[in-house]
Description:
By secondary structure, the chain is mainly alpha-helical. The chain has a domain of 29 residues. The chain contains one helix and no strands. The radius of gyration is 24 Å and the shape is elongated. The mean pLDDT is 85.
Amino acid sequence: MDSDLKPHTLESVISVIENAHHIKRHVEFRYHFIAPFYDVFLARLTAGSRQRSLSRLPQQGA
């Protein structure tokens, strides 16, 4: 057996899985909490560019 490879106990595997689940929940919470504010912020910053881009599209019926 390699010196850096150690056998894993069931408890250590469960601990890693629980930690990964906790991190996933934390990221999901942060995303759902921050995303609406971020979207409003980006909408304000990009409104002019978006309007210019849309004005270049052919108008319906033209």
